[in-house]
Amino acid sequence: MKKFRRLxxxxxxxxxxxxxxxxxxxxKGNYFYALxxxxxxxxxxxxxxxxxxxxxxxxxxxxxxxxxxDFTRQFALDRASIEIHPLRVAFNNINDVFKKISSEREVQYxxxxxxxxxxxxxxxxxxxxxxxxxWINESFKALFAIPYFSTIHALEKKNKGLYHQIIESxxxxxxxxxxxTEQGSxxxxxHISNFQTAEGKYRLIALQNINAALDExxxxxxxxxxxxxxxxxxxxxxxxxxxxxxxKNRLEGLPYVEELDDIxxxxxxxxxxxxxxxxxxxTYRTLNKITQLDLTSxxxxxxxxxxxxxxxxxxxxxxxxxxxxxxxxxxxxxVDINLIEQVLINLLLNAIEAVKNVDNPYIRLQALLINGRxxxxxxxxxxxxxxxxxxxxxxxxxxTRKTGSGVGLTLSKQIMLLHKGNILANSEEGxxxxxxxxx
Length: 439
What we know:
Blueprint: H1 2-28, H2 31-67, H3 85-118, E1 122-127, E2 133-136, H4 138-144, H5 155-158, H6 160-168, E3 176-181, E4 184-197, E5 200-209, H7 211-252, H8 261-285, E6 296-299, H9 300-317, E7 321-326, E8 332-335, H10 337-354, E9 362-370, E10 373-380, H11 387-390, H12 408-418, E11 422-428, E12 432-438
Parallel strand pairs: 7-9
Antiparallel strand pairs: 1-2, 1-5, 3-4, 4-5, 6-8, 9-10, 10-12, 11-12
Helix pairs in contact: 1-2, 7-8, 9-10, 10-12
């Protein structure tokens, strides 16, 4: 920098001195010497102008690089003239600082993006004025089965209900709403916030599927309730059953008296109903017995083959067509085979019951991969279920059959929750039902 200052000062001094001397020679009429000095003054002026032009060009190139954020460029120092060498050193230092800042920001952005991609929460951000989508994570695409859309308004054609839910909600909303999918209904927690930058106003939407959390909480609540109920029922009924059995045996040892017939009949009724209640309570006690899994890898094809061999006689006898669809034979599940077979047998038996009074009864068993996760679907063309029944099919004690215990679907859901999965139901009256096991 000192050399550059000395050079500038020297050129300015020499140009000033030359111009003074040239003016003096012209004033004295020494035109010959003035003519000899003129090229030197022009040369000094040219060096000064060229230095300024070079400086301007260097500034222009740096400004252009900054405009396009090209901080990878390095200004060569080995061939730089003394007047632009300090400028290039400064530019290179600035580039290095911006490069470091840009690198740190890129790392932070990649880190944040990876985090947002890994979370199960569906996140989308868009510009409020134009509706242009600024960012969308894979969880959003997977949750709503929408691969791509450029503006938030394009969502209306793909999912009208979701679009209006997002547009009509205001910042600060943290409400729940139910969203219907092909697999069934899911409950979503909605979070909305607005933010503003120099480029414009933006809206950030977060949608969290809380079905799993609600199901787990509900399952634990039912388990506690069932544990208390079965314990109290068995403790209360067991003595009654034992006492009724004792009275019955003593009555049988007495001589026949017609007046005792009513007592015998009443005692027999009490004993029979007590045993029925004990059996009923014992059935529901099984809901609390399953706490650990014996996980084993099994191909979906082998699982389906076992089920078909087991149910084939029943299907043939009732003339029900079972269609097994397995487009990818390599689909493999890590499950407790006995428990999952129990779930599928229960669903297939329910489907057999559902199609018993329809023409051309049909059941479909299907395995597929959705976003890398295995699903098994059991569908039928039975009578279907109305909404008020759908809302209660996984509730313990609830059944629509005269001979049903109301434990099958509740137990199936608990088994799927133990597998860190879920079971979803979708049904339409007159068209049939579909149960989806999500792993």
